[in-house]
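Dear colleague,

Thank you for sharing your sequence with our group. We've completed the structure prediction you requested, and as agreed, I am returning the results in plain text so they can be pasted directly into your records. Please verify that the sequence below matches your submission; if there's any discrepancy, let me know and we will rerun it promptly.
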Amino acid sequence: MYGYQLHVPAPIDVYLAMHRAVQEVLDEEGDSEGLLVHFAYPVHDGFSLVEVWETKEQLETFNREVFPKAMSRAGLSMGDAQPEPVEFTPAVLMTPRAFSSDAAT
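Please find the predicted structure tokens below.
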């Protein structure tokens, strides 16, 4: 497994726009194979995002094939300065059931 955490100094509304656009692209084209868990939350100066994938290569495929399309659809720039992820290797991941929350919308 491969995991990372990312802090983005942008309002949570930016994340919500990205998330909606990613969902639209995935609904049309698929290809989030390998994503095990994804969550984001607002912090005092932006938002943080955590993901766990089966492999780093699956994340790289997603970032190459899906994410740029979603950013374009949301009208957001990828920009030159990208936040630096903090990588980690999960020891255990338990997902007893699927759950989707629209609490922040």
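Summary note from our side: The chain has a mean pLDDT of 88.

Kind regards,
the structure core
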